[in-house]
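Quarterly update from the structural biology core.
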Amino acid sequence: MQQLSGQDAMFLHAELDGLPQHIGGVSIYDQATAPGGKVRFKQILAMLEDRVHLSPIFRRKLAFVPYNLGRPYWVEDADFDMEYHVRHIALPKPGDWRQLCILAARIHSQPLRRDKPLWELYVIEGLNNVEGYPPGCFALLLKVHHCAMDGATGAQFMNIVHDLSPETRQYNESPPWLVERPSKLRMLGRAYVDAWRTPGQVVDMLREAVPAARRIREGRRAQKIHSLDDKQKTRFQGDISRHRVVEARKFDFEVVRAIKNTQPGTTINDVMLTIVAGGLRRYLDSKGELPDKTLVSGCPIDVRSVEERMAGGNMVGFMTVGLRTEIADPCERLAAVHDEALSSKAYAEALGPRFAVDLADVMPGNVLSLAIRTAAATGLDQAGVMFNTIVTNVPGAPMQLYMCGAELVDSISLGPLLPNVGLFHIVYSSVQNKQGSITLSFTACRDMLPDPAFYADCLQTSFEELRDAALAPKKKTRRKKKSA
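Predicted structure, tokenized:
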């Protein structure tokens, strides 16, 4: 048995009614490169069965401590059935991009069963009229609960089901599968021992909090850390429905990098945050709802050390970045967002990048659950706004990938919504057809964002405005000749 970390358990406690906490994505494949030009459902099942031992996510499920006195455990599912987790469906006609997004949103809105391993995979056929894709493509939609992995471990998980060439690797020998039955008495005993350890962990955190507070105070005095106390409420703050929308836009990586290079020190993340800011500005302005002060984004960051790179679960810190949506000029906004990102990084370093991980580890599960539910119930006023949206960066593979011989031609990512935050963006960089691209996808509450195609167009327009402004040829000023 392996116990969930405090942060892993936090995503279980955050799963309220209508707020499933799984992550995932939709991958599109071209069958033309597969042997015989066709991938069959049974081939996908056979490939997964052959590789099921490569990741514990496949076969483990949750075992809960009686009375919620401790964090749950991962145990092997003695009744694991691959065909329960892998489903075969077809896209409704006409089989276009809009239908794919609608289907993805509907599947993504449904919670995962907690008495089974917390993942599902949907093989989707019928992508016959999706513009830009070769004929005969199919899609895979993956759902994995956030308590099992974050974006960084998700990238490792996806590498398991892919190959670097159309030839499918074979793993003919796998280690024996050992199933351990969870003992309630043993789990209660561990919870008792953990309860005695917690006060010492709290004392250690308090010791670290004093110098952290000093560093933050010094950073503000030196104007390296900005205050974002006056946070604005938008349509994306409030009660979140059970229904979701999904959309995405793709940008050329080289163009994004060229924009980055126009301002010293600017990063790819700064550029993508500026694009999101421009999209939000345009969208809210069209509704007559644009605040006169900046909106704020929560930005998860991976805080794993080199030794922890292969560890599963979640090790995520958080930055809060001002999007400077009050600035109309895209280049000025990019410079301002870069400045806000530097401030947020300085704050995270002063606080300690692992503060969120350590805090979740010392909070009892039932206390953490109560805190999250209380925040969801009372966080609808101005004081309850932590951030207006989430923007997270998920690195994709830097090389072309194949699944059962089929070439991966496109990917979009799906994220969870949080209490009082009904819009989630994911920046996904990848290489398909030997061309680098960055996909900006979003998941949103349908009641808050009923027109996802329009918002996606706002993001596209924001990118184009930033590109045209940043990469426009500089006009040379001619010097007047002095008269003799």
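The domain at 202-398+412-471 is CATH 3.30.559.30 (Chloramphenicol Acetyltransferase).
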